[in-house]
Amino acid sequence: MEARLNYFGNPFAGKVLRHINSANKVIEESSLPGTIQELVKIRASQINGCGFCTDMHTKDATAAGETSQRLNLVAAWREATVFTEAERAALEIAEQGTRIADAAGGVSDEAWANATKHFDEEQLVALISLVAVINAYNRINVINQQPAGAYKPGMFG
């Protein structure tokens, strides 16, 4: 499989990515735990069928010490006992926020209320923003048919 165009080498795309990357950096520096950030990125990427981002974020999570058991269970988090209640709340927000068209009104009041039990306002802003940013990355890569598998942790910065 080849990408439709060299998005990462295109000067105009570089301008677009700089802004998305800047937003991502602000989120990474927030008080939302890094483990939760990676789980959210992985789950949204799985839902969107973004192999490039799924490859990247599972490798980044592994490099940060995440276990293969937990990574293997992200797609089935509801039935898995290896996630904390906070992680489960974030994964629910990630799923409903990614599946807006399917979620009958977006994120449910129940999912939001559960998330507020685990995260403060800054973390909730970071979580919402993270779902938006990873969905933007997913859409770029899926539309461009960016191939997965070659990512090495840290290769983009």
Automatic annotation (TrEMBL):
State the source organism's domain of life: Bacteria
**Residue span(s) of domain Carboxymuconolactone decarboxylase-like:** 24-96
Could you state a single Gene Ontology molecular function term? peroxiredoxin activity
Name the UniProt record assigns to this protein = Carboxymuconolactone decarboxylase family protein
* Organism per entry: Streptomyces cadmiisoli
